[in-house]
Known about the structure:
Shape: globular
Structural class: alpha+beta
CATH class: Alpha Beta
Number of domains: 1
Largest sheet: 5 strands, mixed
Number of strands: 13
Distance between the termini: 39 Å
CATH topology: YbaK protein
Strand order of the largest sheet: 8-5-6-9-12
Radius of gyration: 15 Å
Number of helices: 5
Amino acid sequence: MTTPTLGRLESVPALDRPDLLADPVAEALRGWAHAAEVGVVEIDPAIADTAAMSEAYELGLDTGANCVVVGGRRDGEERVAACLVRADTRADVNNVVKRTLDVRKASFLSMDRAVEESGMEYGGITPIGLPEGWRLLVDPRVLDIEVAVIGSGVRRSKLLIPGRLAADLPYAETIEGLAGTLSP
């Protein structure tokens, strides 16, 4: 099976370059049936943020998918989820995420905590290799991306993955209306 390409991004099989993956990502890929369909591409960490990378590689924001980590409490119990949404949208944390997690208030996890608990770098957190117990909420529009650019767990690379595979990730739940469009 060939690895995905997108625009000027030509990937190699992700597991051929574990040096470009955070440890939890490499471990998760080793046990995932679809790992052969995931590619990795090395990038300059200075352009790891979605907008900068899209501009540098002449990619539309609709080819990227961002992963944000959100948490909230109900009856003393904390509930954490990663939300995977297309890069040209924004997770509806105050409504859909809050209702889905059944919490009084949902908010983004602090950078330090998200990094520590995920074992991934800030700006590189990805839905592959999330900690056990975290839910993964996926906006259905991600599944329609032919080749999605997502984090690799580190800022110096990106994964290229057929968007449809996001629904097959561990803990994945497709949530209608998870993301709204960004304001211009």
